């Protein structure tokens, strides 16, 4: 049967308005589309660390902090922004950081400032600024925070990245160098990561000044084969040719003069002692005669941490590194002060945990859910929730949900053993409902006794 077409209803005033609104909405939407409002995107080389990754991050941060505390390192927080000069002076011209990577700008007071590319120079500045030279030595400091380098972004290399660092000022004994290596390796061990250390000595500035002309002469005779970057290094910072990642330069290394052969007696002795200490505590290490660090201020021992299965062909794989920097404090105007330290890259540690599917120890599963109905219950609930937390009963709530049904859904999903329900009536009576989620049985109990009752119930 063919139905007659329905007579069109005359729109009422209300319906007319709705229509108008809908029309308004669509036109607003098309206006947005027309304007092509683009959601702002992240800057290249910067990233968000999302809640889903925080477990691994906290695992890394906690392991570092707990090691720092057990070795009596004191935490120092240093500013992100420093006078640019601090880094120019210490890191040195001809280094990638100073020549290409530093975020430098003129601030509103017309000062040249830099986002810190690393924190050792800041730690040395703070050591001088705060008269730590007068304290019992060594002064042992640790820090963690973001660093900034306008490097070419790729996996494992960001423009903002986090480091944790350890610095010991005022001790020149080789055992300090060895202990730094032991501490670094211990952090990786605590995380369940299999990490190796490579070490070398680059001696003193004097022993280097005898070695560098030899190195330059060698590479100059092969100059035409070098890539542009290495030609630049040959001119500006020849030591860095030793850790070039370019195939050609790496191939030439076998015939290159080795810095260890140019070390003066004192440097040799220092290095031998570091190695003896490592042998004594049975720490395996690899001697890498081509290991130099990117920064000018290093002296004597230098070391780098790599995953045990890493071939060391990619600069962006090192998990951390450090060494001795006996001249740094003096360079910044302080008294000559021996010092040694290392920094770890947190992103790379988190990435390594993911690579080996290592997961942080789980937080205790919540056992109790706390449902609260109405404002009065929420007010009382605030204090009660805190009391549960203090006696370490794993309790959760769903603060954003008001209806009991929605709150119970969350409780079910979490698989808790007990749900506590606090409504207007219970607040007035000084009671609370305790519901066993398995049996569904529930009873009303005295709110003052609820913590004890819950603890007893959880022990069952
Ligand atoms: P460095 O100060 O260059 O010796 O770096 C110490 C550690 O910080 C490295 O071994 C890396 O783990 C980490 N690191 C350095 N540069 C970056 C970067 N651009 N992105 C991520 N991690 C970095």
List its traits:
16 strands; 2 domains; disordered N terminus; 5-stranded mixed beta sheet; binds adenosine monophosphate; BirA Bifunctional Protein, domain 2; Rossmann fold; alpha+beta; 460 residues; 8-stranded mixed beta sheet
SSE layout:
Blueprint: H1 13-35, H2 54-70, E1 74-75, E2 81-83, H3 84-91, H4 96-101, E3 103-106, E4 112-115, H5 120-129, E5 139-148, E6 160-169, H6 174-191, E7 195-201, H7 205-220, H8 228-236, H9 247-252, H10 265-280, E8 286-287, E9 299-307, E10 320-324, H11 328-331, E11 339-345, H12 346-355, E12 368-372, H13 375-390, E13 395-397, H14 404-414, E14 418-422, H15 424-429, E15 431-436, E16 442-446, H16 450-459
Parallel strand pairs: 1-5, 7-8, 12-13, 12-14
Antiparallel strand pairs: 2-4, 3-4, 5-6, 6-11, 7-9, 9-10, 10-11, 14-15, 15-16
Bound molecules: adenosine monophosphate.
Adenosine monophosphate binds next to β6, β10, β11 and α12.
